[in-house]
Amino acid sequence: MEEKEILDDEMNNQEIEEETETIAGDDPEVIVEEAEDKKSSKKKNKQDKKSDALKEKVDELEDKVKRQLAEFENFRNRTEKEKTQMFETGAKSVVEKILPVVDNFERGLATVPEEEKGKPFTEGMEMIYKQLMTELEKLEVKPIEAVGCEFNPDLHNAVMQVESDEYESGVIAQELQKGYTYRGQVVRHSMVAVVQ
Predict the structure, then answer these.
(1) Which residues pair with 190 in a beta bridge?
(2) 172/196 Cα distance (integer angstroms)
(3) 163 near 195, Cβ under 8 Å?
(4) What string of pLDDT tens digits covers the 196 residues of the chain?
(5) What is the CATH code for 141-196?
(6) CA end-to-end span of the chain
(7) Sign of the CA dihedral running 12, 17, 23, 26
(8) Residue 23 CB burial class (10 angstroms; 0-12, 13-18, ≥19)
(9) Neighbours of 149 (CB within 10 A)
(10) In angstroms, rounded to a whole number, what is the distance separating the alpha carbons of residues 171 and 194?
(11) Looking at beta carbons, which pairs linking 151-155 to residues 24 or more positions away fall under 8 Å?
(12) Left (φ > 0), alpha (ψ -120 to 50) or beta: where does 142 sit?
């Protein structure tokens, strides 16, 4: 790079000398001033070109850095979203596995005879069931309302049709198995009987 600048300077000096020689009959002071003006203007042009090239390079590098920062931010947001989805999927899977235990608790407590209801064993089982349901509620697991509600295929699974004097057509008359949602998403549909 330095060699090129030296060669350019030498060529500029040579051009100035040639111009000076062609105008030999003019005043020597005028010739020197004209030569210096040309030399300074060529240096200025060269400096302007260098500064323009450097500015262009700086702009290009700044643009590249901004793009990389944006890509990194997008990557971070995408991985955070994927991590959240994986957690939600895992939690939903665990909830699905716990629901049959809840069903069995409910069936067991429903079959307790009246004379056994006040005994410590039955009360202990009821307390365990309530604790389990409280913890599920904290995790945002909620039972789907069914009996007396309008049939909704997004929440309910109709397995049979029945006749009823109590409910209108299309209303759920009986719940055969409870359905649950986890954070607003259906984990298990309610198994229901719908009025014809």
Answers:
(1) 156
(2) 10
(3) yes
(4) 455 555 455 555 555 555 545 444 455 565 556 656 666 666 677 777 788 888 999 999 999 999 999 999 999 999 999 998 888 888 888 999 999 999 999 999 999 888 888 899 999 999 999 999 999 999 999 999 989 889 999 999 999 999 888 888 889 999 999 999 998 889 999 999 999 8
(5) 2.30.22.10
(6) 92
(7) positive
(8) middle
(9) 16
(10) 6
(11) 151/192, 151/194, 154/186, 155/179, 155/181, 155/186, 155/189, 155/190
(12) beta
Type of residue numbered 141: V
**Cα dihedral sign, 94-95-100-101:** positive
Interatomic CA distance for residues 184 and 88, integer angstroms: 12
Task: Give the pair of three-digit tokens for residue 35.
Answer: 């030569």
Tokens 């000076």 locate to 20
Residue 146, token pair as written in the block? 């069914």
Q: Which amino acid is at 114?
A: E
